[in-house]
Amino acid sequence: MLAGYPLLSLSIWVPIIAGVLVLATGSDRNAPLARWIALLGAILGFAVTLPLYTRFDPLSASMQFTELARWIPAFNIHYHLGVDGIAMPFVLLNSFTTVLVVIAGWQVIQNKTAQYMASFLIMSGLINGVFAAMDAVLFYVFFEAMLIPMFLVIGIWGGPNRVYAAVKFFLYTLMGSLLMLVAFIYLYFQSGGSFEILDYQRLPIGMTAQILIFIAFFLSFAVKVPMWPVHTWLPDAHVEAPTGGSVVLAAITLKIGAYGFLRFNLPIAPDASHYLSGFIITISLIAVVYISFVALAQSDMKKLIAYSSIAHMGFVTLGFFMFNTLGMEGGLVQMISHGFISAAMFLCVGVMYDRLHSRQIGDYGGLAKKMPIFAAFFMLFAMSNAGLPGTSGFIGEFMVILSAIKVNFWYAFLAATTLITGAAYTLWMYKRVVFGNITNPHVEDMQDIGPREFSFMAVLALAVLAMGVYPKPITDVMHTSVNNLLAHVAQSKLP
Amino acid sequence: MNFALTDLMPLLPEIFLLAAVSFILIFDLFLSDEHRYITYILSLSALLGCGWLTFSGATGETIYAMHGMFVSDMLADVLKLVVYFSVAVTMVYSREYIRVRGMFQGEFFVLMLFATLGMMVMISASHFLTLYMGLELLSLSLYALVALQRDSAVAAEAAMKYFVLGALASGMLLYGMSMLYGATGTLEIAKIAAVLQQGLGSNTVLVFGLVFVVAGLAFKLGVAPFHMWIPDVYQGAPTAVTLFIGTASKIAALGFVLRILAQGLQSLSPDWQSMLVIMAVLSMAVGNITAIAQTNFKRMLAYSTISHMGFLLLGLLAADINGYTSAMFYMISYVFMGLGSFGMILLLSRKGFEADKLDDLKGLNQRSPWFAFMLLLIMFSLAGIPPTIGFYAKLSVLQAVIHAGYTWLAVVAVIFSLIGAFYYLRVVKLMYFDKPHDMTPIAPQGDMRVLMSANGLGMLALGILPQPLMALCAYAIGKSL
Predict the structure, then answer these.
(1) pLDDT band at residue B360, thresholds of 50, 70 and 90?
(2) Nearest-neighbour CA in chain B from A87: distance (Å)
(3) Which residues of B touch A (CB under 8 A)?
(4) Under an 8 A CB cutoff, do A163 and B433 touch?
């Protein structure tokens, strides 16, 4: 019945149209209407992505649900959509996260509610476009356009230093992507006038050109992931962004960087990828080891989680450049799991911030006495962030460490230090915030979470646990595509 | 000398405009101030008439008239239509602004129409003398327009500066043209091209002349290092006139450059390409870096223009059909953005208040979310962020320059456009992240409201569907060059 529907187009345009409708409600007098339209739009947007999973053929490595239309014939640019097992889970994750963000901002955002909700809905559609685009220019358009709503979200609803953070976020990301644009145009001429990503993947390219192309893509995606040493925008952006912004940043936009490695760097420049893998592995390990220590020293909870995100994303890139199935799938599982966990962690901080208006660890203490339900959820997410077996955080890290040990013992050794440092910074923060005696009198007045907050916490808790116990439904859909990609990367593309 | 009336058919739009503007000039003398709007309506009608004549005369064929002095081809027709459009939009945007400032007089409209006539002659010139005549008609009208606000010292200074530097540039251009004449023995563009094609003509004299011609063109386009007049004139002139200089006359300058470089001196392209490379890099550097330091919105936009003209040169220096097409597309896109950005200053200004400081944009999102959104679209378009038209303009010149083998230049260009993004973002920051210090309601006239909304949304609409405009540019260039 659904076969005839352009599912990917729907997953892109339903949220965007909903966002425009929300904007049309106008000023804050109509805020309740804006909220309900936003929620409806987000749920509808998520609903249209569900068939992508149920109707997905996990045995095929080719692009599915493809849509192709001429868009700009002058440059042979097409509106070409399609997803494989690598991209498809992220479309779902993104649409799912949007629902959470709308609920999380329900009461908190009282200023320009319509613009807030619309920004997230439009961003959600654009991000789906990033994952579904099969045409380089189309990809670029979504990739850049997505920055505009995020820039506004951080700048309008953010904290005291929001302007600095928003501009830094925008310019850092733009810096990388402009070089990617030059690489696209170069490939356009090399391939004889095509902007199809799949054509680029088949195109033989010389080593020097491959390395330059790799670097152009690398700068673009490394900033997005973010990898050490271009990570400095993330803590700033996270700290200043409102809760919803942090959630989307951590759960989704970071994944776009890692996805870019799989879609562009590895298949378009496989020889350069092998040649430069030592470099990538090194900076990934620096992210895992060094950034974990940086996280340990933070006194601001959001900053701590931001640094922990960088460390976790280091695992993802490490896994990708092991060039084996386990590592790559481990990286992908880690991405999805981190999508849930970082969203949950930021939502937890958001819940506390809404009550006390502080993100400083030192301002809390003894929360367990006042907010027992919240403390329980927070415990689960903190454990998962530390990589406790039985939660989703464990699976990805474990797979990556296993794959690394096959390549080089010391890679695995260094990566495994995260099991100690990750537990240290997360649980130490948890201890200082939740246990101990109440020292701040304002903590006495804090209320436990209400039904609205309970609902998104419970959904995320289920997701984290389900994925930790039984990750097969996720690895199954990506298995064929990952193997296909690895087989492609193993072949030299030198002419 | 045989002469038939039908020889004049290609000049019909020019003849019509000359007749119309002469009529308006005289008719306006008999109007009292409260009936001045009739002049306004007549001027718009004259443009509409020109538009219809040009549109219905556009056959796609290249017709020479007046013994090779004048050419009517697809390139001219398309550029002229864009000129009419932007002049008409300028008039609508300016109406309220000049009314409250006592400039709502016949002179304003008559000078604008004469300038328009000059542009049309420039665009359709196929002879150096015709080119020069059109250029001077445009320039003299512009000098007068800049000085139109007689009691403003800044405007008088700007006009003076513009006049002196403009005269110098015209002199250089003429000198270069005379050199070319000496080397080739003709002033007719097509014949010069033919002579050069055969490899005739003295090379030293040619290159010498070429340097002067390119310098003159660079002044008219406003690219570094011949950009000095732009910031002062843009800031000093009444904003309505800045809008005019910043949009319609740019189209004429493009037509002028294409006629000389692409049609006349194509065979010398290896010589002028390297000059354009230097000017392009300098313009992008000077424009984008200096714009960061500005506090005046008009001045910031002036520097932004310089950087955009640098990008335009990227298309031109590719020196092939693809490159010229991309330059034309870039220029037309830029004109839409220029109309929107300067138009917004007019929209926000009111009696006794010029909204030309960057700080005047503070908190615009709270004062008027709709127009803040329009300016946001225009700013992102100027910065070249998709999904706006500015992105495709950048894409098309970048692909032209990479196709021509200058990949390093494309990298330099994107680095400067990253620097440029900063000051466009600052405008968005002021509108969206800051609190307003002035809550005067913004209530533009109905036609202005509609047109400005169309202008802003046009950035988005053309950004989502850029194909028709691209195809039009490719068709015009392909048919004419």
Answers:
(1) confident
(2) 22
(3) 365, 369, 380, 385-387, 391-392, 395-396, 398-399, 402-403, 407, 410-411, 414-415, 417-418, 421-422, 425-426, 428-429, 432-433, 466-467, 470-471, 474
(4) yes
> Which residues neighbour B431 within 8 Å (Cβ) at sequence distance 6 or greater?
B361, B362, B363, B364, B365, B372, B375, B376
Q: What tokens appear for B370 in the block? A: 């709709």
User: Helix, strand or coil for residue A133?
Assistant: strand
Which structure tokens are listed for A167? 């501009």
- Numbers of helices and strands, H then E, in chain A: 24, 2
Cross-chain CB nearest to A179 (options B402, B414, B428): B414
Closest Cβ–Cβ partner in B417, B422, B433 for A162: B433
B266-274 long-range contacts, CB within 8 A, separation 24+: B266/B193, B266/B196, B266/B319, B267/B193, B267/B196, B267/B197, B268/B196, B268/B206, B268/B207, B268/B210, B269/B319, B271/B207, B271/B210, B272/B210, B272/B214, B272/B317, B272/B319, B273/B317, B273/B319
Specify the pLDDT at position B3: 64
Contact in structure between A86 and A332 (CB atoms under 8 Å) = yes
Residues of chain B neighbouring A181 (CB-CB closer than 8 A):
395, 398, 414
Whole domain around residue B388: which residue ranges?
5-480
The whole-model pTM stands at 0.90
Nearest CA in chain B to A184: B399
Chain B residues close to A163, C-beta within 8 Å: 429, 433
Cβ of A74 within 8 Å of Cβ of B474? The answer is: yes
Average pLDDT over residues A403-429: 85
Q: In this structure, are residues A432 and A358 in contact, taking their beta carbons and an 8 Å threshold?
A: no
Residue B70 phi, psi dihedral angles, 5° rounding: -135, 140
Q: What is the complex's ipTM, to 2 decimals?
A: 0.86
Which residue from B414, B432, B467 is facing A156, i.e. has the nearest CB?
A: B432
Of residues B214 and A445, the one with the higher pLDDT is: B214
The H or E element containing residue A152 is helix A147-157
Does residue A438 carry a pLDDT above 80?
no
| Total of domains in chain B | 1
**The pLDDT of residue B45:** 93
Q: Do B429 and A115 touch (CB under 8 A)?
A: no
- Give A136-177 pLDDT, tens digit per residue: 999 999 998 888 888 888 888 877 788 888 888 888 888 888
> What pLDDT sits at residue A23?
83
A-interface mutation test, from B326, B328, B329, B433, most A Cβ less than 10 A away: B433
